[in-house]
Amino acid sequence: MIKVGDELPDVTLQEFSEVEGNGCSIGPNPVKVREAAKGKTIALFALPGAFTPTCSAKHVPGYIEKFDDLKKAGVDEIWCVSVNDAHVMGAWARDQKSNGKVRMLADGSADFAKATGLTLDLNARGMGTRIQRSSMLVKDGKVASLNVEAPGKFEVSDAATMLKQAGGA
Q1: Among 115, 112, 53, residue whose Cα is nearest residue 83
Q2: What is the DSSP letter of 7?
Q3: Most distant CA pair in the chain: distance in Å?
Q4: Domain residue spans in the chain?
Q5: CATH fold of 12-166, please?
Q6: Cβ–Cβ < 8 Å for 148, 52
Q7: Order of strands across the sheet with 142-148?
Q8: What is the DSSP letter of 52?
Q9: Which residues form the catalytic set?
Q10: Quick check: helix, strand or coil at residue 160?
């Protein structure tokens, strides 16, 4: 499993970008993780699935709510990673009104999940291989803090914990 001090994996995620005015999306667009993280402080959180209850009701809204505080604490970007395709993540971004605050990044083939060792086997529930609910503060491509949730929990990967780790209130 990835740990503090490790570099983010050299994988490519996918992202949609909103087109101003008509709600259509451009994409999917590749996001090379190591390249995109260079020289930045990133609050990265991962979750099992778009449109799932805890993810939609608590996880993403918390980061949207703490956006300004995280920016003040020195976070350049907030990334949400989930094993979904880019079309689903784009639709979820519109639903969550995360545009301009949280980058919704699709890990469609679970490459990021596998490379970080954060895979979650949800085959018995019909969801396949996913990523564990977690968060990490990333500085210049390296993990500065890592928070991995116990199965079924939402206690340490929330925005308030990330804000404390980033040096905010």
Answers
A1: 112
A2: B
A3: 42
A4: 12-166
A5: Glutaredoxin (3.40.30)
A6: no
A7: 25-32, 12-18, 102-106, 77-82, 41-47, 134-139, 142-148
A8: -
A9: 55
A10: helix
